[in-house]
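User: quick one, sequence for these tokens?
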């Protein structure tokens, strides 16, 4: 329990006190940042407002709530985003809840780059397929920043899709639809898209035990782990992408990629090789701000689906309700 003798103190003194309580889980600079978020939540004031106040007056109930949050962070390793209930992403406020995957800064970096790329296509109505949508963060960001984009976003997790719909409503966006689907299986047979994006599970099973407790204990492992050194789901996405990509987009924009996927650090070469084998004309491995492989853009040749493939797909689409609803949430 946080015990503070005076219920009147400055924002700075409370910030320091909370940061000290958080030291077991965060270093001092991180603790100060986290403490700032907690104080903003408890007072319902912005940091700018708090800094302009000579004194903060908090009730015993306020301190008890702060103590519960500190215990959640330090003892239970609960992610701060789940306590706050949202994360900032691409100038949007994205609601989050356990165990749906929390959007990462590294994802925001490449999504903002993708938005800049797709803004070059201003004279065409863009159709975009967002696989493993999770909270809907990538598709919603594209819908918010690209006025000519129409997005279909898919996931196998019903809880994730409910959260995505909540985010859509909160953000007042209309040019995006969310569907329950295991990758492409719920996509209508004749649907074709200009662009496919995905942030699928890509962590190797052996890496899982080495992740922070805040990840292992709280976030859905089905949204993070993939077989075959983490690339099993990436391989499925890449191999089937040519059958769902619009040929005219490649003709009209011959220098532009039509497949964009997030990858794990060190997976660049192996995932690029999957793209080449699936018929890519161009593959680029992009690194994040830390210098790690983070996403791949590829220009894939399109293919027509054979009658046998259509029959198989139609069968799977009819059985979609029997598939697991806990995988692929990103």
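Assistant:
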């Amino acid at each position: 329990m946080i015990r503070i003798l005076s219920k009147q103190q400055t924002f700075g003194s409370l910030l320091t006190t909370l940061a000290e309580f958080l030291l077991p889980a965060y270093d001092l600079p991180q603790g100060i940042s986290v403490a700032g978020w907690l104080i903003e939540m408890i007072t319902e004031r912005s940091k700018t407002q708090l800094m302009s106040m000579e004194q903060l007056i908090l009730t015993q109930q306020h301190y008890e709530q702060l103590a519960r949050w500190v215990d959640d962070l330090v003892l239970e390793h609960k992610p701060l985003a789940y306590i706050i209930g949202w994360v900032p992403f691409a100038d949007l406020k994205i609601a989050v809840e356990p165990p749906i995957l929390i959007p990462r800064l590294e994802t925001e970096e490449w999504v903002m780059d993708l938005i800049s790329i797709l803004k070059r296509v201003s004279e065409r109505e863009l159709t975009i397929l967002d696989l493993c949508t999770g909270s809907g963060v990538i598709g919603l960001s594209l819908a918010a920043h690209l006025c000519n984009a129409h997005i279909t976003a898919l996931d196998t997790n019903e809880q994730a899709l409910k959260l995505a719909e909540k985010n859509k409503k909160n953000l007042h966006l209309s040019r995006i639809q969310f569907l329950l689907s295991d990758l492409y299986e719920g996509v209508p047979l004749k649907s074709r898209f200009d662009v496919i994006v995905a942030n699928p599970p890509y962590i190797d099973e052996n890496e899982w035990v080495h992740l922070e407790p805040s990840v292992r204990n709280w976030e859905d492992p089905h949204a993070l782990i993939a077989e075959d050194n983490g690339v099993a789901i990436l391989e499925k996405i890449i191999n089937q992408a040519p059958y769902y990509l619009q040929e005219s987009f490649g003709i009209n924009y011959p220098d532009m990629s039509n497949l964009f996927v997030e990858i794990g650090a060190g997976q660049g070469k192996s995932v690029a090789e999957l793209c080449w084998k699936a018929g890519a004309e161009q593959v680029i491995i992009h690194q994040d701000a830390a210098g790690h492989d983070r996403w791949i853009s590829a220009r894939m040749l399109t293919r027509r689906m054979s009658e046998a493939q259509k029959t198989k797909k139609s069968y799977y689409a009819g059985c979609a309700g029997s598939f697991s609803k806990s995988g692929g949430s990103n």
